[in-house]
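Contributing new records

If you add data, match the layout below exactly. Sequence lines come first and carry their own label; structure lines follow with theirs. Keep one chain per record. Anything else will be rejected by the validation script.
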Amino acid sequence: MKAIIGLGNPEEKYKTTRHNTGFLMLDEILSAHNVTLCDKFNSFFGKKGDVLYLLPKTYMNLSGNAILEMMNFYKLKNEDILVIYDDATIEFGTFRLKKNGSFGGHNGIKSIINRLGSDKFDRLKVGVGPVPEHFAIDSFVLGNFSPDEMQSVYKMAKKSVEVVDCWLKNGIEITQNKFNGKII
């Protein structure tokens, strides 16, 4: 069993913010895989075959709580999950897959590392940066994408379906080799 997790904030006002990139990517993946969601694990949760899908409703900074609850219920290991999230240090339109690493200033990832007790889990970092000089990072990531950027976000979301399908079939290394880099 594998789990695909998108990070974001559940309120409508956050729907098209940079910090909701994980939710935006997973929405397209859910649509492509025809997955219906329900409320479970303090999340929007779906299951199709042996793949689980999770959008934590705990808000970004407490994402690890919902993820750990799901992992414990299904007895998943860290290597069974792929976490999709925004990264303001990576150029907009770029995907970077990683097997592990620090939280890199991302509080959602920090929460997951703290709750799992390990930084060893697969990640799909979606570039939303760089942060303009005159912006605080919090203001930037909680800001909405422009309409032009949203068109590109939709293209990235379509590509994220291919990334997830490759990860499910082949694992992280092959997926990294195929998809790391500029997507749009």
